[in-house]
Amino acid sequence: MAQLWGGRFTKETDQLVYNFNASISFDKKFYEQDIRGSIAHVTMLARQEILTEDEKTAIIEGLNGIKSDVEDGTLEITDKYEDIHSFVEANLIDRIGEPGKKLHTGRSRNDQVALDMKLYTRDEILEVDALLKELLRVILDTMKMHTEDYMPGFTHLQKAQPITLAHHMGAYFEMFKRDRSRLIDIHARMNTCPLGSGALAGTTYPLDRNYTAQLLGFDGPTLNSMDGVSDRDYLIEFLSAMSTIMMHLSRFSEEIIIWNSNEYRFVEIDDAYSTGSSIMPQKKNPDIAELVRGKTGRVYGALMSLLTTMKGIPLAYNKDMQEDKEFVFDAIDTTKGCLALFTGMLKTMKYNKANMEASAKNGFTNATDAADYLVKHGVAFRDAHGIVGQLVLYCIDKNIALDDMSLEEYKAISSVFDEDIYEAISMKTCVDTRKTIGAPSKEAMDKVIALHEKYMIVE
Ligand code: ARG
Q1: Is 142 helix (H, G, I), strand (E, B) or coil?
Q2: Which of 26, 86, 89, 155 is deepest in the core (most CB within 10 A)?
Q3: CATH number corresponding to 110-146+163-204+218-356
Q4: Domain 6-105 is found in CATH 1.10.275.10
Q5: What is the pLDDT of residues 79-103, one digit of tens each?
Q6: Atom of ligand 1 nearest to the CA of 23
Q7: Residue with the nearest Cα to atom 3 of ligand 1?
Q8: Is 151 within 8 Å of 165 (Cβ atoms)?
Q9: Dihedral (CA of 341, 346, 348, 349) sign
Q10: How far is the CA of 150 from the centre of ligand 1 (A)?
Q11: Domain boundaries, the chain
């Protein structure tokens, strides 16, 4: 057991208590951030003449030595230490002796851990954002290639009106673009430095908190030391943003699973992103999409877990907060993994345009346009709705599409129909005439795609 405290204790900690209390098994993940924070802290302490220049130099050299030894494997982070802070400090003292004992001057593990977690997640927010941007690139490239490839748009999972593959993809572009803006908001709001908050009430040393904040790339110091050590809002926001990303990935996965099914055959997931069955030789399963859909639950779980952990904690730091780490780390790794795999799957997926178009045609997705045709020829919409309803019934009976009916058959139901009905209800017309911004026509989509291209350059 290697602890940073013990002076006021007369007994050793019970081994089970020690194990229960320790966090090294998971907080070793931010050894680099812990060292980075310590280097900034001692740099400031020396500038404020709280430490000498020699002490500062010795400490920084020692810390950098620990970092490179951990990285090249010569120094192992073992559970002999209570947490990563104890590991770094104990190793520093072993290495450089007396000056090492001054590292923790004007600091508490409470502001230290608050800083480490912020530094860690701040980098991760940007990594998740970069992965989202890669996904947006693939979606946008897919949109550009398919502005005239028709497919059914659904409501209630029933074929509704024709759209294009570009339009469908464009919906996901919007979702993941909003996800990115949420991450950027969180990044801006969380970017204040808690170091210098001490245990809860600041310190009596003349710390320059603006300087440490600046050294660590923060916009400034946190303005209340109690809040500084006990704020975990940004983690909750990050988990919420990741939950939303996962929700979007999960919806998209669900659609891909449906599209890839034997019944739909709209897409084919690449062999590299599919798996087989141990018993059924014909199977090629969409496991990656299913796993992404499944892992969404883990990330939601992390959000609920931290919300629940935080809800009854009085100010300021309480040990409950140590529970913020494992779930957040897991949620980050899960979200990043899912984003990377999903992007790869999407990039290599093949689209079966003929099946998509046939499905749109055979699903009466042009029925609204047939009714609109009648309206344009003087029939009231409600009557037109009824007439087209009869056409649909007739087609279902004969197992044909509206496009397959002869003009005589049309005229038998309403004399208003004429030769131009075929043109009016073609997939091309149905889509091309929906020109308002946000609608599926090529004209509208090209405008949106141009805006997205600009966004990809600027953001
Ligand atoms: N391992 C602790 C955590 O993650 C570090 C802070 C410990 N502070 C304390 N007062 N015991 O929260």
Answers
A1: helix
A2: 89
A3: 1.20.200.10
A4: yes
A5: 999 999 999 999 999 999 999 999 9
A6: 1
A7: 322
A8: yes
A9: positive
A10: 57
A11: 6-105, 110-146+163-204+218-356, 363-458
